Amino acid sequence: MLAVADHFFTGANLELRDARAEWDAVAAEINVEPQRILLLRQVHGAGIAVARRGEYVAALRPEADIALTDDPTIALGVRVADCSPILIGDRRRGAVAAVHAGWRGTVQGAAMAAVRALQEQWQSQPADLVAAIGPCLGPCCGEVGPEVVDAFREAGHAPEMIARWLTRGQADRFQLDLPGANRDQLAAAGVPASQIHMAGLCTKSFPEVFHSYRVKKEGAGRMVGIIRVKPVNA
Fold first, then answer.
1. Residues 145/173, Cβ–Cβ less than 8 Å
2. What is the pTM of this model?
C-alpha cells in the first residue's frame, strides 16, 4: 500500500479474482470492512457514482465507471485488465475518486469527468489533486483500428491531441497511448503535471505479473485499483 498524500491511501496493483478470501485480504490491506469496498458495474463509460459520508448503502453496486467519496470508512475500487485504473485524491478536502478508463472511457473523457465531479461535489481545486495512473495497456501494445480514431474525432478531441495519442501502425492500425491520453486529460482538467504519477508498465508486456485481456481474453483475471480517504486519526 502506498501513501501518496496526507489525506488518502492508494493501492493500485493488487491482483484479484472475485473470491471472498482475496477481497477480505484487500480490505485488510487498506484497513476497511470488506462490505465497505464500493465496486461498480463497469460499462466502459463516464458515469459517476457518489458515496457521500454517511449515505453509502453496502448492497449497492451502481452502474458507473467513476466513483467518488469523502467517507474514510469506504474504499473505492475499479477492476482492470488492460484498461487504466486512475486514482485521484484531494489533499485539502479529503475526497477521493477511482476511475476505470479503457479506450471508450478515455474517448468520453472519464478522467476529466472525475475532476469536474470532485469540483462539483466538494469544491475541490485541481491544484490540490494528486492522481495515479496504474499499469495498463501501453502504447507499445495498444493496437486499435481506425474506428477508435473516428471515435476520438466524433467526441470532439482536438486533432493535435488525437495525433499525440494515436500513432500510425501497420496497414490501417494505430497504436493508442492510453496512459498518455489520460495523463493529458488530467492535465487539461487542471491537475498539475508534477502531481500526476504514472506506473509506466504495460499489462500485456508483463502477463506474468499483471492480468491482461489482450493476452488471455475471457480467461483473464482482474486487478483492482483501490483508494480511500485517510482517517483523521491515522
1. yes
2. 0.90
